[in-house]
Amino acid sequence: MSAAFLTLLYTPSVYEHQLQSSSRLVNGWIWDKRSSDPRYISSASIQWEDVYKSMQNLNVGEQKLSVGLLNFNRTEFSAWTHMLPESDFSVIRLEHANESITWQTLYPEWIDEEEETEIPSCPSLPDPSFSRATHFDVVAVKLPCTRVAGWSRDVARLHLQLSAAKLAAATARGNRGIHVLFVTDCFPIPNLFSCKDLVKREGNAWMYKPDVKALKEKLRLPVGSCELAVPLNAKGKFTTR
To answer: Which GO terms of the molecular function aspect are on file (predicted)?
Structure first.
């Protein structure tokens, strides 16, 4: 059976044309040598004036703005703290996906319908590491983009956006909600962060305010088509006791 189903994280190829121009290779991710994994390195040049404009007018009352940073390097972390000196920053740690996990693993072209008993599953993508008592006003993420055909079918990019969604869903402050800022030269996943939730864009800084309840529902969906087909004999295991 063809795996052309519309799952949560399928990104239409039309968005592959949403690219910006300038780039600069960044090396050395915050406090973790494993972060030198080239799949996660972003070549996006951060225009700090655009980032600042995106962060303006965020109303957090009398509290300090709390920002979670994912996939920024040491120099960029320092720039964040200088740009918003009155804010609190937390570095989010994220184990990288196993190199054996490919886009084809998550979205196989064909699913074997003749399998009678085995329940299909997707490989595990590590969750971000943070305290469950943490609350953020903004989750900021720097995304890689290969800037070539098929850039949206990138496991590291998918992993980072899933992690941003999980952080937003878990750390939002009640009715205040949460903002998610992507620094990227390519369009973020529209099926996860929809256009209607995009509140501001300045250059390659994309600021979203997602509906937290809707985001949690999306995160319950399969990561890829690798989980879509459950054999008939296996289905009985879910319906009989």
So the answer is: transferase activity
Q: Give me the number of domains the chain comprises.
A: 1
Is 6 domain-assigned? no
What is the strand order of the sheet 88-91 is part of?
88-91, 66-70, 138-142, 179-183, 205-208, 198-202
Which stretches of the chain are assigned E, i.e. beta strand?
A: 66-70, 88-91, 138-142, 179-183, 198-202, 205-208
* Structural domain that includes position 200: 13-239
* Domain-embedded: residue 72: yes
Length of the chain in residues, anyone? 241
Q: Find out whether 20 and 201 touch, Cβ atoms under 8 Å.
A: no
| CB contact at 8 A, 182 and 56 | no
Q: How far is CA 180 from the centre of its chain?
A: 10
Which is more confident, 83 or 238? 83
* In-domain check, residue 113: yes
Enumerate the β-bridge partners of residue 205.
183, 202
Residue 72 burial (C-beta neighbours within 10 Å; 0-12, 13-18, 19+): buried
Kindly state whether residue 21 falls inside one of the protein's structural domains. yes
CATH number, domain at 154? 3.40.50
Determine how β-strand 179-183 pairs with β-strand 205-208: antiparallel
pLDDT digits (tens, 9 = 90+) for 119-154: 667 788 999 999 888 999 999 999 999 777 777 889
CA angle 129, 42, 50 (to 5 degrees): 95
Is 33 in a helix, a strand, or coil?
A: helix
Range scoring the smallest mean pLDDT among 41-55, 163-177, 213-227? 213-227
210-228 pLDDT per residue, tens: 999 999 999 988 787 777 6
